């Protein structure tokens, strides 16, 4: 995880927002980085960014799609 650095602290990343955004606008954003996926809160883009391995992200997405999470 990265320390808070203010909005735009990781400007080189291309962030994608979930298409399943809650009615109040809460959702996560993800970005690809070498050998990992960056994840952040869309409402607080300047706060900490979590980095997870691509294999962990694929497993997480599969578990959600299969209803295991």
TrEMBL record:
A Pfam cross-reference name: DUF397
Residue ranges of every copy of the DUF397 domain listed in the record: 13-64
Domain of life of the source: Bacteria
InterPro entries named in the record: DUF397
Record protein name field: DUF397 domain-containing protein
Origin species: Streptomyces lonarensis
High-level lineage: Bacteria, Bacillati, Actinomycetota, Actinomycetes, Kitasatosporales
């Amino acid at each position: 995880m990265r320390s808070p650095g203010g909005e735009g602290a990781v400007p080189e990343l291309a962030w994608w927002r979930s298409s399943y955004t809650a009615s109040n606008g809460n959702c996560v954003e993800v970005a690809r980085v070498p050998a990992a996926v960056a994840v952040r809160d869309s409402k607080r883009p300047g706060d900490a960014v979590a980095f997870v391995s691509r294999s962990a992200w694929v497993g997480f997405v599969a578990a959600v799609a299969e209803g295991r999470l």
